[in-house]
Amino acid sequence: RCHHRSVAMLDIPFPTFCAFLGSLGLLCVALVSAWCQHWRGGFSLDGGSRTFNWHPVLMVTGLVVLYGAAALVYRIPSTWSGPKLPWKLLHGGLALGAFILTVLGLVAVFCFHNSHGTPNMYSLHSWMGLGTVLLFSCQWAAGFGAFLLPWAPAWLRELYKPIHVFFGSTILMMSVASCVSGINEKLFFSLKNGTTEYKLLPAEAVFANTLGILILFFGLLVMGALARPSWKRPDSDSLDSRQ
Predict the structure, then answer these.
(1) Within-domain flag for 6
(2) Which InterPro entries does this one have (predicted)?
(3) 167 inside domain
(4) Which of 27, 98, 208, 218 could lock 66 by a disulfide, CB 3.0 to 4.6 Å apart?
């Protein structure tokens, strides 16, 4: 009886969870924007450091928050009945929007590096980030071909579906890891030479570290929602679904 009571207390309604997760995602976007505006000088398109500031904002917004929203589309109970095409279009559209923001974020950092003569792709963060984007592009293209094109055979969709789900979660984990490592790398290079050192934990370091924790928390919540059995879309071929 105590076990059932504790399980019932943890049974959070999906709309409540989505409202909390959406608020957390907006908070992450607001905090990364405030960090770049207040401590890093704001935004511009002149190729300088303010151009770089678009990179973390676009990456967190696209690769984490918008991508996480796309991953949870099929957990909405309204998707469990009726035609799937509108939800497929929403899922693919959100993922495409996330991909566009991600590409713009890459353009910002490459423009900054090239204008300052800084080598590209030399750090673990850059390797992991570019690998995530490349995997994301392959995932979207394969998903579009398998699930949105009308001539894709049913056997191909059934074969590719678990692969698509696995790599979807993998990309989200890699996105979170890339963003967190990028925050750490930016703090390491910025908090020195005339500023308070990173190891002395100035206000900017506390703020950015908190941002990294919230991004990690957002990713874990999305992964938890994807793994929760009661929030998974019922199999249309199962006995319970037919009943």
Answers:
(1) no
(2) CYB561/CYBRD1-like, Cyt_b561/ferric_Rdtase_TM
(3) yes
(4) 98
Using the structure block, give the residue that is written with the tokens 């904002």.
57
229 and 238 in contact (C-beta within 8 Å)?
no
Structural domain of 113: 16-230
* Cβ count near 149 (within 10 Å): 8
Instruction: Name the DSSP letter for residue 231.
Output: G
Question: 132 with 63: CB under 8 angstroms?
Answer: yes
Cite the DSSP H helix spans in the chain: 2-10, 14-38, 49-52, 54-59, 67-71, 85-116, 124-143, 154-190, 203-227, 239-242
Complete DSSP assignment for 63-122: IIIIHHHHHTGGGSGGGGSS-SHHHHHHHHHHHHHHHHHHHHHHHHHHHHHHHHTPPSS-
What distance in Å separates the CA atoms of residue 165 and residue 225, rounded to the nearest whole number? 13
Ordered per-residue pLDDT tens for the chain, 243 residues = 544 443 343 578 999 999 999 999 999 999 999 999 999 999 999 988 999 999 999 999 999 999 999 999 999 888 888 888 999 999 999 999 999 999 999 999 999 999 999 999 999 999 999 999 999 999 999 999 999 988 889 999 999 999 999 999 999 999 999 999 999 999 999 998 677 899 999 999 999 999 999 999 999 999 999 999 888 888 654 434 333
Helix pair 85-116, 124-143: axis angle to 10 deg: 150
Rounded-to-integer distance, Cα 54 and Cα 45, Å: 9
Domain count of the fold of the chain? 1
Q: Which residue has the tokens 């704001």?
A: 42
Residue 191 is part of a domain; what is its CATH number?
1.20.120.1770
Is 173 within the bounds of a domain?
yes
